[in-house]
Task: structure prediction
Amino acid sequence: MKLLDHRAEGPTSAPPLLLGPSLGTSSALWDKVAPELSITHRVVRWELPGHGGSAADLIGAGATVGDLAGLVLALADSLGIERFAYAGVSLGGAVGLHLAVHHPGRVDSLAVICSSAHFNGAKPWEDRAALVRREGLAGLAESANARWFTPGFTVPELVRDHRDADPGAYAACCDALAAFDLRDRLAEISSPTLLIAGREDPATPPVHLREIADAVPGAALVEIPGASHLAPAQCPEAVLTALRAHFDGGARRGMEVRREVLGDPHVDRAQARQTPFTARFQDFISRYAWGEIWTDPTLTRRERSMITLTALVAHGHYDELAMHVRAALRNGLTPEEIGAVLLQTAVYCGVPAANSAFATAQRVLAEEEG
Ligand SMILES: O=C(O)CC1=CCC(=O)O1
Result:
């Protein structure tokens, strides 16, 4: 099966983040944003059919946003990505809305940028599709700067990509925009949703994003002054700040997992002891140890507990060991299994270390039983 062209960057073990382009643009739209996002995410930028390196015949006349969403899901499947965060601009944002409504199990978190739940009816897009089918894209590309940027600003590479797109596929994308209207379904979206509007955007002005924010439960709206339609290209830092804050569920998720594994009383005590001096360290632990490592599904929590017990014995961290014996019980290890792990440490970490570990574990197990 033919797939959308894409560019992937960032650690393969990081949470996946799919980035969608707007009509006439390519993945270059994300050039100033994607490298930064790829520090914390496996970023996959996809190309519209007939744009960038995607084949034009992936869609045809009468295409829908649902067809584009299907291509995005096929790409995700091919990359072994089940659930993902998603950000899209304009038509790419419409794809994100469609995914969140029709495939909620796939979308962990959504950001919709300079986009809309409807693109002002069918007529303008039917006219544009007819024009492009008749005359190609050269003429339309001449007006790209006015549609995409504030006066005096341009990104020549994006304008060139617009001119070079396949007219048939571009027109099919216009067909998809003509038929798109998700206003009645927005309230069904359950993924955490961020809307980003360009204050100077003539194509999808802030009122379109506000309409989505008002309808999607819990959604947030950020308006970027000085940005027109292609905000990630024109105001990358503002977009990056908003996306980072939205997608960095690491700290939040980390705190949830920390509480699940260590228990509320322990975490509450740690929080109460926190001072301005230790706050950054506590935050680091929540994000990194709990938000990234303990949440990584490659290993089970039971397996992680066994590894952690062993490592703590190896380094003689007996206070931490006591805490992780409790965590191991919470993660489903039996006292017998904990004993078997400690016995094995006698072989690899040394008998004196295991001796102290058994004493610590015995005390904790007795406390937990009593
Ligand atoms: O190029 C435009 O006209 C702006 C636009 C509308 C939908 C989209 O994806 O881009």
Notes: Residues 109 and 191 are 5 Å apart (CA to CA). Strands lie at 6-9, 16-20, 42-46, 84-89, 107-113, 193-198, 220-224. The pocket of LWBT4IAB is lined by residues 22-24, 90-91, 119, 147, 177, 203, 229 (CB under 6 Å).
